[in-house]
Amino acid sequence: MIQRLNTPTAAAFFIVSLASLAMAQSGPIIHDAEYDILFEQHAEDWAEQDARVDQRLNELREANGGKPPNIVYILIDDVSFGQMGIPIMNDVSGIATPRINQLAAEGAALTRMYTEVSCTPTRTALLTGRLPVRAGVTDVKGVIVGEGLSAEEVTVAEVLKQSGYNTSHVGKWHQGDINEAFPHNQGFDKAFFPVHQQVQLSLMTPEGARSGNLVGWHSTGQSQGYVIDAFFKPFGLVTGLEAEAGGNAIEVGLEPGEEWTQSHYIEMNERYQRQTLEELDRLASEEEPFFLQYWPLWPINFVQDGEYVSRNGGFQAEKLQVLDGMLGEVFDKVDDLGIGGHTIVILMSDNGLMYQFEGKSGFSQLIYRGGKTQHLEGGVRVDAYIRWPDVIAPGSRMADIVHVSDLFTTFARLGGGKEFIPRDRVIDGIDQTALLLEGDGNGRRDFVYIYEGPVLRSVVKQEYKLHLPAPGAPAATAGVYNLLRDPREMFPFVENSLWSSASFQDMVKRHLKRIAEYPHLPLGTDVPYEGIDNLRPESIKARELFFSRNK
Amino acid sequence: MIQRLNTPTAAAFFIVSLASLAMAQSGPIIHDAEYDILFEQHAEDWAEQDARVDQRLNELREANGGKPPNIVYILIDDVSFGQMGIPIMNDVSGIATPRINQLAAEGAALTRMYTEVSCTPTRTALLTGRLPVRAGVTDVKGVIVGEGLSAEEVTVAEVLKQSGYNTSHVGKWHQGDINEAFPHNQGFDKAFFPVHQQVQLSLMTPEGARSGNLVGWHSTGQSQGYVIDAFFKPFGLVTGLEAEAGGNAIEVGLEPGEEWTQSHYIEMNERYQRQTLEELDRLASEEEPFFLQYWPLWPINFVQDGEYVSRNGGFQAEKLQVLDGMLGEVFDKVDDLGIGGHTIVILMSDNGLMYQFEGKSGFSQLIYRGGKTQHLEGGVRVDAYIRWPDVIAPGSRMADIVHVSDLFTTFARLGGGKEFIPRDRVIDGIDQTALLLEGDGNGRRDFVYIYEGPVLRSVVKQEYKLHLPAPGAPAATAGVYNLLRDPREMFPFVENSLWSSASFQDMVKRHLKRIAEYPHLPLGTDVPYEGIDNLRPESIKARELFFSRNK
Prior knowledge:
Chains A, B: Its EC number is 3.1.6.1. The first copy, chain A, contains 16 helices and 19 strands.
């Protein structure tokens, strides 16, 4: 967490954040070792290119009254690669995404964007520019856990805030249930967010019980015979919060004793949409440039509700089509405000589909095999589009490897805040500004390390991908896949991979060595649900039970 | 076969073709029973629409000096759905198809085009407008067989010839090795074609022996120890023929005693490209409208030859990228001749990839599961693009079901020759002219019967697909797949299919009943290689052996 020293803060809050107070720093950013190998080979060319890039960024800033570009970063949930933005693919699934297709046509497709394998880690990677495992973030927390993104981590919002941006977060957050992890304590001036995620918000409802998509949580789903432990099933979870930096949060949209239902979920989705549009209005009227995150909850949904709109009809397919229209309103708003040219709009998914619901949700694996929670390309390759009319030619494509953490570093550069990136830890995010400004082929990453939780499962280099052998198995048996010829990772031809075996093993060694030099930081832990002014009695009770059961 | 009565023909030829001499006929075309069910529901609307369509076709004809449109029909081999024409998908495979992408952008994508499961049947379906099983065509003939497309069949070239078109065929033909089956005896004024296919032309070569892609044919591939039968391996096959309607063929490009090699194959591909461009020049200078088929042999290839051009580098991927540039020359030629507006250019694949070479060829299953020879969507769903500047808006999509046989009937309508479609047999091809003229949602087919050889394996209706149960297995165990939600046909949810079980069984019954009313016609059979003026001695010997071994 970075604070501007002139911002008044509560004393307690100041103490929590003191350790991570970061100032402008110089010296090189510490990247993973594999980047150093690339840098060695290209240092001279990249320095030249960076000079051009800086000049171009200056010109753009001058043309925009001295301000760097606004950034609207839209991250949606669990959508397979190919599911949005490609017109012909809309016909494959019977899901129409005309507005996202239009965004893609007006900007560039980042056709080789890698995320982490699930929601929380991907969001951590974006926020911190680091592999989430380095921040102790390895899995998804859907209930009370007393854990979350540590105050020690420096987020992209903190970097941009420090650089003079106004910052807002609207929608899914999913970085934990402790005060220090909340967005208004991680660099966002304003935040509108649910503490947990869609399993709580759409499945743990009476409608969820009748949806046939998950069995056993709601008491109306079956008789309660033989139930001896009344509290095995999570209850009393906090829902939607709203807060400003330096203040406490309040829970909105649910009264004490009131049951959360699917209609609350619908209302929450509509509220975040409305608040995004309102924030755009507000932010555009300010002097400062802005960074706005809109992380919708839809298309994740587990209940068939409302009028059917798609030919597909699946319970998540439907909501992607609805969301497409909503995102269209956001894009239109950006243009209507007259800020389109110098506002970067990025849209991407946070990981692959929830393949457990494949065939019913309406989503399918399409091109890449696997989905959320898996190191396969289907888990970590996503549709990603970027529109920046002043800079990026309509209908372009960039097939260079980009990892979601690169956005951290790239946003920092674009916002003029690279100096606020910490130098005391590994930053995985690589500055890809040259790629955005000079186009396809100007990427600076040719590798990705893919974790499932705390376990390194795959290493990508160029078009090759090593699936790590099981512990104890000989390295020579590990499969190496050629992703261009075999995008579904079906054929680990030994004869095609033997040449690469040692090179991949070296990559793993280098990566582990750097971890030894810069050990992982711990996940933040604290009393859950602190800093919420109007905690409902049932949430207080749930928290008490959490303590008594986990002492 | 239809002949224009004023065309002089050799007497022998006339006798062969007498049985199929077809004259203008009236009365309804006999379609499969499932179409009648659709027709019943839409007769009135379709009649109205057809009146509009006829008026529009008349206007177009008037604007074009009284002539119907030219048709350039390009059919390529064994390319998976999604492999060409979709820019972002080019990055998935590392195969660039900019010219095909451009064709798609200038015209319409037929996003639900179905073919037959392999080369010969798909081509028969296009040529005859019939499920190939009705013409006795069930499999692929790669060697001497004395079989081929029967003279009894009426081809689209015959229909268009009768309607006043000039007709040419260049490239792969693959409809058998008997004289009556050759293109110049099936309605084409001019024909340039190999008798067999790419296994002979690219694999059965010294380079093929060293390619590692097929083992055992060429004598240099291994020592000949224990070989007792010297003639188990095919030899002496005829290669490329050229002919004009009513005349005999001559073999070109290979001298008696000369060995066929990969460089002959390359030369053949380049020759067909050159001849296509020459034919375009010639045909455009004639008074009559024209129908030109260009059926390239590439991308099928089994040898790594020449300079590498694609990032993928697979031995078929390479040739798709090369072919893309060649097709660009064809598209440019159409435009340069000033006939672009009223020349329909169609490009499609004949079936899915040869999945046996997946991972090595550079092609992969991409979106749909399965490939050539299989009833799965990966076998029969292909990329298909149509450009017709006077009529079709750039960048359109048509997601209606179209079967390759529909092109027969649609071309007949567009060419003003519907009256020449025979009324004494089932024509599976449905007139999709309204779809082309009035766009997405105006298709007249919602079903496909999918055969593997002589066996009905799947029935498609709307987005549902029944995989037929094995003989003797109860119908209730048959899987029904929802292709929008499950494009890879992985999840035969019984609960989603029980409602459709009886409806699908009825579809099968109706289909079989119509076959009983209009039984399949036999495949043509005759002495192989008749009608070739310069048969090489080795071909004569191979034919003799064929007789002595199959008497």
